[in-house]
Inverse folding.
């Protein structure tokens, strides 16, 4: 895992003096090494340079010495050493005598198999890295190499032969890629803060995205960011710049074939499907155990993370998939726990620990002496506002793992979107059932789901009814039931600055994060690429990289995703249970109470309690003459926040969003004092 940066001048400007500060801004993503490429795509000349953290034995020319030279292309690279820890893995990396150069972030888990295939085609390798395999694969297959990669990645590749810049992002956007483009230059990086370190990039909030966040609850749902002019390359897309003509094209290189049916596979033995799923999941974990540095796993006590822990344990014990020195005597797990019994999952965590014999490491995130102390740093690393305090649990877990000298961490992210884990997915399922099976069969399903999930029949019927309604009626209901119907309450329209609300009011009709859906498979697809997973992957990437950790997500192995989306949704929600296929596949791998648990928490936190504990901090945040969020918030709300007390917290819907927005503006646009 690494951090990448780059600048391409399209009108001949010198770029060397910008790339250093940009790359330094993301040092946390790669503390083990630092490298630069300065190139001229017109003359096809180049030089490799180093910085303060560059491994000394490479003896590279200092970047500062060449910064003013006539180069119009620059790559930066910060390395977190995970595979081939030698200096051979230094980046940016050349290939074909410098005709190809890449700055690369991520892991290609099937790189040994690809390397063997490429060797058979006449290619040779000087390193044991996956980076060199990416270069050779591009040399052999061009942009079609992407379809052969199983992994997470974001990279930029300069092809001096074709005079092109080829930038690509993995299928699900696990690894980030941000860019800014005007008529003079193209600037990119793994994180927005690195783009902002370029002195020519204007720093201005994106008011439309801020509206979506406050009023609609949407995050990471478009290629726009909270910073105007800075965009993200969308998952499973690549970007190609013809450097001779300064033209840019963006294309999608992968998509899923979605089975939208409710039932099917009647002729197929369900047991065969369970076996196929289990084999794919175990192999996904197997590939993600490939590492030359210590590995651990996140364990929340939920079904997804428990399955990853159990699969990893099976591979470590049965196959010796990882050398003992990289895991220790037992697999290391890391968990967030709470004194609040309503959200504490220690009972499930302990069952998994006893069942697998893994080592348990636990942390208790706090509000008063935790979140509020870390908030500014958390906001800086996240770069864009987030929907709730839940990510602080993950932040705390990542910090705990780093304290135990773990560098690679497996996690269960993506399992809910893939396997219909969230109970809100029951709504589209019931709406689809009503249309295809009729009311009486659907009522039987509701009874089963009530028993299987612990939700009342009235609640489940309401979910199904809501998802069956026309869009305009859904929007009215959502506006009336903000606190009850949204997973994270938004700021009510009456709390917004009137001019701000009028300017963007039409965006209410175009957003679908909380819009009901008549088809479950379509809802899962939308959440995978637009409404749910992109934000969760952003949280995971920034939280892990803040502590120089590489987080890996086996549920997002593309083979597993393609398999699940090829099935009718009755294989996901069945006999009253969500994640039916996973529960069946984990027979013998998990304690029965974990495999058949009904509750669903995720990275839950006692948010209301933390907000009450932070009431004085919130009041202090808004007690300035110049409030940076005043263009977005009504004056009455600002006055209420200035005198906020603990008892007032529950009376302000979307309070966290307001607090997070003001803190974000202070961090990136300057103090209001």
């Amino acid at each position: 895992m690494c951090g990448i940066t780059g600048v391409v001048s399209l009108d001949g400007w010198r770029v060397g003096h910008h790339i250093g500060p940009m790359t330094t801004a993301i040092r946390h993503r790669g503390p083990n090494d630092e490298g630069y490429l300065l190139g001229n795509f017109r003359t096809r000349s180049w030089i490799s340079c180093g910085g303060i953290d560059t491994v000394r034995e490479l003896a590279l020319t200092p970047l500062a010495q060449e910064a003013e030279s006539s180069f119009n292309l620059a790559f930066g690279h910060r390395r977190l050493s995970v595979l081939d820890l030698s200096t051979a893995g230094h980046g940016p990396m050349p290939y074909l005598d410098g005709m190809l150069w890449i700055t690369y972030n991520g892991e290609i888990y099937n790189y040994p198999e690809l390397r063997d295939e490429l060797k058979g085609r006449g290619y040779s390798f000087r390193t044991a890295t996956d980076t060199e395999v990416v270069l050779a694969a591009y040399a052999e297959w061009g942009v079609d190499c992407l379809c052969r990669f199983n992994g997470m990645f974001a990279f930029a590749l300069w092809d001096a032969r074709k005079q092109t810049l080829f930038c690509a992002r993995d299928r699900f956007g696990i690894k980030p890629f941000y860019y800014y483009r005007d008529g003079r230059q193209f600037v990119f990086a793994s994180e927005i803060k690195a783009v902002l370190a370029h002195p020519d990039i204007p720093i201005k909030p994106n008011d439309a995205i801020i509206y979506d966040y406050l009023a609609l609850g949407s995050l990471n749902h478009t290629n726009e960011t909270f910073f105007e002019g800075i965009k993200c390359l969308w998952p499973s897309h690549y970007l190609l710049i013809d450097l001779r003509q300064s033209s840019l094209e963006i294309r999608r290189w992968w998509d899923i074939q979605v089975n939208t049916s409710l039932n099917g596979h009647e002729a197929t033995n369900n047991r065969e499907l369970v076996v196929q799923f289990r084999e794919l999941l175990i192999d996904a974990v197997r590939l993600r155990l490939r590492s030359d540095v210590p590995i651990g796993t996140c364990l929340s006590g939920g079904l997804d993370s428990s399955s990853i822990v159990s699969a990893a344990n099976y591979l470590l014990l049965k196959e010796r998939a990882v050398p003992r020195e990289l895991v220790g005597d037992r697999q290391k797990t890391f968990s967030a726990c709470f004194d609040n019994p309503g959200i504490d999952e220690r009972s499930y965590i302990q069952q998994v620990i006893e069942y697998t014999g893994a080592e348990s490491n636990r942390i208790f995130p706090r509000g008063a002496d935790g979140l509020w102390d870390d908030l500014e740093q958390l906001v800086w690393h996240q770069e864009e506002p987030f929907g709730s305090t839940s990510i602080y649990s993950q932040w705390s877990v990542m910090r705990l793992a780093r304290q135990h000298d773990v560098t690679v961490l497996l996690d269960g992210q993506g399992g809910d979107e893939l396997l219909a884990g969230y109970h809100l997915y029951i709504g589209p399922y019931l709406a689809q059932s009503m249309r295809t099976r009729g009311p009486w069969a659907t009522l039987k399903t509701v009874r089963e789901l009530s028993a299987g999930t612990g939700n009342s029949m009235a609640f489940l019927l309401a979910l199904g009814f809501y998802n069956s309604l026309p869009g305009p009626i859904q929007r009215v209901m959502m506006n009336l039931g903000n606190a009850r119907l949204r997973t994270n309450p938004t700021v009510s329209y009456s709390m917004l600055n009137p001019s701000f609300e009028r300017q963007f009011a039409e965006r209410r009709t175009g957003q679908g994060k909380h819009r009901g859906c008549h088809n479950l498979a379509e809802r899962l697809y939308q959440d995978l690429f637009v409404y749910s997973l992109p934000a969760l992957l952003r949280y995971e990437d920034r939280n892990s990289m803040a502590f120089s950790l590489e987080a890996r997500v086996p549920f997002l192995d593309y083979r597993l995703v393609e398999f699940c989306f090829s099935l009718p949704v009755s294989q996901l929600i069945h006999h009253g249970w969500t994640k039916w296929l996973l529960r069946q596949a984990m027979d013998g791998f998990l304690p029965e109470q974990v495999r058949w648990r009904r509750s669903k928490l995720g990275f839950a936190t006692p948010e209301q309690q933390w907000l009450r504990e932070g009431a004085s901090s919130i009041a202090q945040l808004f007690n300035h003459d110049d409030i940076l969020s005043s263009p977005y918030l009504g004056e009455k709300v600002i006055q209420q926040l200035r005198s906020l007390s603990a008892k007032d917290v529950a009376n302000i819907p979307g309070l966290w969003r307001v607090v997070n927005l003001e803190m974000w503006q202070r961090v990136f646009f300057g103090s209001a004092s």
Observations:
- The two ends are 38 Å apart (CA to CA).
- The first helix runs from residue 16 to 24.
- Residues 2-252 form a domain with the Glutamine Phosphoribosylpyrophosphate, subunit 1, domain 1 fold (CATH 3.60.20.10).
